[in-house]
Amino acid sequence: MSADIALIGLAVMGKNLILNMDDHGFTVCAFNRTVEKVTEFMEGEARGTNVIGATSLADMVSTLKCPRRVMLLVKAGHAVDTFINSIVPLLDQGPSVCQGRHRLGDLPGRHGVHPQVPETRHAPRQGRPRRRHLHQ
Predict the structure, then answer these.
(1) Short-list 73, 93, 94, CA closest to 6
(2) For residue 12, how far is the Cα from the chain centroid?
(3) 31 near 7, Cβ under 8 Å?
(4) CB-based contacts of 70, cutoff 8 Å, min separation 6
(5) Can you tell me the distance from the alpha carbon of 23 to that of 17, in angstroms, rounded to the nearest whole number?
(6) For the segment 36-84, what is each residue's pLDDT rounded down to a tens digit?
(7) Which residues contact 109 (CB under 8 A, 6 or more apart)?
(8) Helices H, strands E: what count in the chain?
């Protein structure tokens, strides 16, 4: 089985996002620096799903469909740079690496894109306007 996307970081948000993507028909490869967390997740919450557990970065990359997509949900800062520097050499040309965190302003001069990963521009949001909160 091949995965649509890989997610690195099995804290609460990472686990829930993986399970959500699985519920919506995506095959996700789960990886964590601490491999025991992958085993616990696969034997626990992810049992009976289409989630694939990886025990190494090379194993994770080998499960991905092309174009390979990797999402990072790890602590901002050095951990992000370390993972990206480890992953990019394993990927084909033009990888998509997305780092997720609560605030983009955590690191000055960083806007969610690593220098080794080509930046993707998105078209402005179209369609319905965003809903306003009822209680303002």
Answers:
(1) 73
(2) 13
(3) yes
(4) 5, 6, 7, 8, 60, 64, 87, 91, 95, 96, 97, 98
(5) 10
(6) 999 999 999 999 999 999 999 999 999 999 888 889 998 888 888 888 8
(7) none
(8) 4, 5
Encoded tokens for 102: 């609560």
Backbone φ and ψ for 130, nearest 5 degrees, come out as -65, 145
Token couple for 107? 């690191």
CB of 21 closer than 8 Å to CB of 52: no
Q: Can you say whether the dihedral through the CA atoms of 7, 10, 11, 13 is positive or negative? A: positive
Q: Exposed, middle or buried: residue 41 (CB in 10 Å: 0-12, 13-18, 19+)? A: buried
Residue 94's identity, in one-letter code, is G
- Full-model pTM: 0.71
